[in-house]
């Protein structure tokens, strides 16, 4: 087989066989296929797509490009969750203790931030002492004993995806549905969970800008999961503005604590409870969505959910005192208030610009390997539909950098005001099972 012939075949819109796909993935993982040929191939996929069988084969080949985690030593149905990524998305921090509180085992493996702000692992590391490097035995013991553990993703998990994602990132081929679907699902399947709940974000802060595309991505991933024997549900959720009020790392931990204490932002609470409810259904604890949602609300009200987060922090070596006193989390030197320059209502907030602004303040990585400042971030005081008067604070920037003019400018560009009040946004835009 020759790679050039397979690129040609895909360029002409033909379907590839399982053997051809395995040849490509194995050859690329072993450095036998160079980046320039793989770039041409991904661009051909971007334009010509792949059919469902090709996507499943592509995913499976990436799963087997490295180690697969065996979680069979954990009792019960292990349910994982994945988000396609958004700004202010701290849902994993909430669902992990919440779902574990009702007895569903969550063995979570997470990556570092790929986008403008940190990933779940980065956020947790803003808690002093929190360890994400757990040995296999420790990880499994924690899940069997406490129903929860979170660890950094092993370097050898779906290595083909790691290499391919880095290539796509610099060849304008990230936002292709077959490539995103196979990338996400290869990591989830290699991580060993029995069931998966996917949070597919749609809007200005997401890869998928339209509802139609987001639904197609959701359906593609659900089909891959089911064809590879993983019960999979996808929820399409709104990302037309950042989720909740906090964007950053330490401040997102604080906001997750607020939700688990029952005093969190309404949008974030709704999305987190919806995803957690479907996880408990796949985990076999509840059969009915409304019942699951109400029971999880009760778990929050009773104080059990926030205690469970404290337990997670304790067993992973972090300082549990931050849960009762979030002021112990890293704090920035500067807090800059951005004020409204018009009277009216907030019409939109471009989530991507807010994410870039947070990165400029130090909350994210400009490039792989950069250090993150856990104290840096943004608090959105006003969100879509809120009334504003000239001089009202619309958001607060937290930073240790001295030059934050560009970050302020990005925020000013992100906010659009209007004279009319918009109604509340629908948050849950589809459920695909
Ligand atoms: N997240 C992933 O893991 N992969 C993609 O391709 C896009 C988002």
TrEMBL record:
Domain of life, per lineage: Bacteria
Keyword Transferase part of the UniProt annotation: yes
SUPFAM superfamilies: Nucleoside phosphorylase/phosphoribosyltransferase catalytic domain (SSF52418), Nucleoside phosphorylase/phosphoribosyltransferase N-terminal domain (SSF47648), Pyrimidine nucleoside phosphorylase C-terminal domain (SSF54680)
Enzyme class at the top of the EC tree: transferase
Catalytic activities: thymidine + phosphate = 2-deoxy-alpha-D-ribose 1-phosphate + thymine; uridine + phosphate = alpha-D-ribose 1-phosphate + uracil; 2'-deoxyuridine + phosphate = 2-deoxy-alpha-D-ribose 1-phosphate + uracil
Keywords: Glycosyltransferase, Metal-binding, Transferase
Domain called Pyrimidine nucleoside phosphorylase C-terminal: residue spans: 345-418
GO MF annotation terms: 1,4-alpha-oligoglucan phosphorylase activity; metal ion binding; thymidine phosphorylase activity
EC numbers for this chain: 2.4.2.2
CC terms in the record's Gene Ontology section: cytosol
InterPro entries according to UniProt: Glycosyl_Trfase_fam3, Glycosyl_Trfase_fam3_N_dom, Glycosyl_Trfase_fam3_N_dom_sf, Nuc_phospho_transferase, PYNP-like_C_sf, PYNP_C, Pyrmidine_PPas_bac/euk, Pyrmidine_PPase_CS
Membrane-crossing residue ranges in chain numbering: none
Function in brief: Catalyzes phosphorolysis of the pyrimidine nucleosides uridine, thymidine and 2'-deoxyuridine with the formation of the corresponding pyrimidine base and ribose-1-phosphate.
Family: Belongs to the thymidine/pyrimidine-nucleoside phosphorylase family.
Subunit structure: Homodimer.
Protein's name in the database: Pyrimidine-nucleoside phosphorylase
Record organism: Desulforamulus aeronauticus DSM 10349
